[in-house]
Write a structure and sequence with these properties.
The structure is a homodimer. With about 150 residues, the first copy, chain A, is mostly helical. The first copy, chain A, contains six helices and three strands. Chain A has a three-stranded antiparallel sheet. In chain A, strand 2 and strand 3 form a beta hairpin. Chains A and B meet through helix 1, helix 5 and helix 6 of A and helix 1, helix 5 and helix 6 of B. The structure holds a DNA duplex (30 and 30 nucleotides).
Chain lengths: ~150, ~150
DNA sequence: CTACTTTAGACAGAGCAACTGACTAGTGTC
DNA sequence: GACACTAGTCAGTTGCTCTGTCTAAAGTAG
């Protein structure tokens, strides 16, 4: 399996996906090691989108690009495991705000540390300037590529 | 939902995932429009990894980071839909090579065109130099982040 | 060349994650 | 007050992925 083409061998999609997957795996492993092993990647992708003041189910679904039903299913599981809680939305009696609960809050520093460790490794490999450019470029890309925003 | 922090609001994982997802969606839509609407994202992720001379199931599974069983299941479906075919591996009677079949080959230019269109949009938004840097940086990142390689 | 170990892949069974469609209840508008 | 819209749930289905088990071929050691 020798490389015939230098950079173009992999399309951009794969090039974006590979480090994403690597990062996710690392964060997952770190959380599992810290005792947070009772949730799944799908649940984590929803959890990540919860804002500091709580977020409605419908908003979570839009942000994660899944249906309300799926989001509800995943939040049910997160709630059952103690990572999140549902509180009434004072501004709308139909809605409820999904908030990070005590157990969920415990995951945040662990996840952040794992991300920081991976980013540090990447910065070592790439150089700190290309690493900063990568982040900045991806942030700009989000402006046009994020259907939610 | 105002931005409080300029770039750091989203972690790198999300920043990688958002454009990946956007690109995948666009390619999917283009393929569906061209009549290739009878396959799923999971199948496409396996299909993408098939090399020009065919690839063994076990290799596909490793590359896509799924189990052999899952890869076999997805290849079954791709084979049934006419996108790939299985041929004996001349070097190992146990193994078979998964190859792109006629119908599968038809998807390649359509997918490539969709990717090129998205990349052109992104280059317009980012500037062509940052776009080239993005590709180069991601390629270098693959060197350490791709567990398969 | 025979016995053991490893590898390629298939089969069976189960759980999770996503979807569509139909529904209830609260909100907003005319 | 009637009607349209929105937040979320319930029911049912499909698809993806896993673990565990199995067969057959290949490689290795005696």
């Amino acid at each position: 399996m020798t490389e015939q083409v230098p950079n173009e061998q992999f399309n951009l999609g794969l090039l974006l996906f590979i480090p994403y997957r690597a990062l996710e795996d690392r964060v997952f492993a770190a959380l599992a090691k810290a005792g947070y092993d009772d949730f799944t990647p799908a649940q984590a992708r929803v959890f990540q989108r919860i804002g500091p003041d709580g977020t409605r189910l419908t908003e979570l679904a839009q942000a994660a690009q899944i249906t309300k039903q799926t989001a509800g299913f995943l939040v049910d599981q997160l709630e059952h495991a103690g990572y999140v809680e549902r509180t009434p939305d004072p501004t709308d009696a139909r809605a409820r705000l999904v908030r990070v609960a005590t157990r969920g809050a415990g995951t945040v520093p662990v996840g952040a540390a794992a991300i920081a460790a991976v980013e540090a490794e990447w910065a070592t490999h790439l150089g700190s300037k290309p690493m900063a450019q990568l982040r900045q470029t991806l942030s700009r890309l989000r402006e046009i590529a994020d259907p939610y925003r």
